[in-house]
């Protein structure tokens, strides 16, 4: 995949900071490119190491009802902390998205079941924020290795007894 591709002709222009979803949907535009993980303000704080890149491909179009839509994919490999052993682990992010642009929240009932709403307020949206939102949604709820050893736990001075057993004994 080339570094950055833009528009239905896939012109070799830099990626826009703002995208007008309605305008791009009317033109049947496509955006493809990459962002460094470190460029994402929220995502970089959620990963153990903000190295690497996230690639994306978005297709803007109008559906049969005249709604502006975005279909796309994101892919990345990030390093998270395993919540079982507390060691770094590589996690592949791969997500497909289907969004319907809405100017107003009152239009939420018009979003088909297979899509998610994108509230734009009728304004252009920041491309990097749109991609970052989808990347965050692709993160696992709890990061764990498929197999790992739990960290060593210190043995309590009373052995394997429950701490409540000590309280019961001291009554």
Protein model, in words:
With 171 residues, the protein is of the alpha+beta class. The chain has helices at residues 21-27, 43-46, 127-138, 163-169, and strands at 5-6, 18-19, 30-36, 53-62, 68-81, 88-102, 116-119, 125-126. Strands 1-3-4-5-6-7 form a 6-stranded mixed beta sheet. Mean pLDDT is 84; it is low at 1-11.
Per-chain topology:
Elements: E1 5-6, E2 18-19, H1 21-27, E3 30-36, H2 43-46, E4 53-62, E5 68-81, E6 88-102, E7 116-119, E8 125-126, H3 127-138, H4 163-169
Parallel strand pairs: 6-7
Antiparallel strand pairs: 1-3, 2-8, 3-4, 4-5, 5-6
Number of strands: 8
- Average pLDDT, all residues: 84
* Low-pLDDT regions: 1-11
How much strand? 25-35%
> How would you sum up the major sheet?
6 strands, mixed
Total helices: the number is 4
State the order of secondary-structure elements, H for helix, E for strand: EEHEHEEEEEHH
**Helix-strand category:** alpha+beta
Name the overall outline: elongated
**Main sheet: which strands, in order across?**
1-3-4-5-6-7
Distance between the termini: 70 Å
Helix content: 10-25%
Q: Compute the gyration radius: what is it?
A: 23 Å
